[in-house]
Specification:
Layout lengths: L71 H6 L2 E4 L3 E4 L4 H10 L11 H22 L6 H11 L7 E5 L3 E5 L7 H18 L6 E3 L8 E3 L10 H21 L1
Antiparallel strand pairs: 1-2, 3-4, 5-6
Helix pairs in contact: 3-4, 3-5, 4-5
Protein name: Conserved protein containing a Zn-ribbon-like motif, possibly RNA-binding
Organism: Goodfellowiella coeruleoviolacea
Pfam family, one: zf-CGNR
Length: 251
């Protein structure tokens, strides 16, 4: 029949599934990175060795003050020395130095060995002699304690010279002073010499050094000289010049 359409039966197309093989992606073999720890070499720091400043000991002792060679007691009083810069030198400060001082002044044999008690006795008498010198220079009364100490030292050694004999000298007189009485004899000799100095014809020449900080005593050889050494004299003159300049500046 015209106008009639034939029905077309369309069979469904069955698409066969495509088998897609999975692609096996092999993982990239990454070698493990072994990081070795950095070993820092130890730094050896050498210690800084600071050398100590070498301070020279006070060995340059001043020469004997005027009159000290004539009167051992004056040198004895000057055995404690005040030096510039706050330094202090004590020639009787130890048994060894005290022994050396006595030997050098023919007051002890070379082989003598003093103990601290003996050195302390010497230092004690020295302070009493200095006290008597200071009062004499200041024209003040003598300290009773210093007088007593000096008189006590005077009686420590026998004053009478004994009659002795030996193959070399034959008969002679000498004052006995056994080793156990070395210090007693030295104290007696120094005390007697100090008494002679303070009461003799040179007593009016005793003076204290005028240079600061010197603490020594001397016998004046000139009316205007009041210093015990050339070094102290230079300091006195420098101090006087400075005082004059200061006065002129103020005026």
């Amino acid at each position: 029949m015209r106008g009639m359409r034939e029905s077309v039966t369309a069979e469904p197309v069955t698409a066969e599934p495509v088998a897609v093989e999975p692609v096996a992606v092999e993982p990239a073999a990454t070698e493990p990175v072994t990081t070795e720890p950095a070993t820092a070499e130890p730094v050896t720091v050498e210690p800084v060795t600071t050398e100590p400043v070498a301070t020279e000991p006070v060995t340059a002792v001043l020469p004997p003050a005027p009159g000290a060679e004539q009167y051992p007691a004056l040198d004895f009083a000057n055995s404690a020395i005040a030096l510039p810069g706050g330094q202090f030198l004590d020639l009787l400060g130890t048994p060894a130095t005290a022994t050396r001082w006595l030997v050098e002044h023919d007051l002890a044999p070379a082989g003598a060995g003093l103990q601290e008690m003996c050195a302390a006795q010497l230092r004690s008498l020295r302070e009493q002699v200095r006290a008597l010198l200071a009062s004499h220079v200041a024209q003040a009364p003598a300290p009773p304690g210093a007088l007593s100490a000096l008189n006590d030292a005077l009686t420590r050694a026998p004053s009478a010279a004994l009659l002795c004999w030996d193959p070399t000298r034959g008969l002679h007189r000498a004052t006995a002073h056994p080793v156990t009485q070395i210090v007693d004899r030295a104290l007696a000799v120094l005390a007697a010499n100090a008494a002679d100095l303070l009461t003799g014809s040179d007593a009016g020449c005793i003076a204290a050094c005028g240079a600061t900080p010197c603490n020594r005593y001397l016998l004046r050889t000139h009316a205007r000289r009041h210093w015990c050494s050339t070094r102290c004299g230079d300091r006195v003159r420098a101090a006087r010049a400075y005082a004059r300049r200061t006065r002129s500046t103020k005026d």
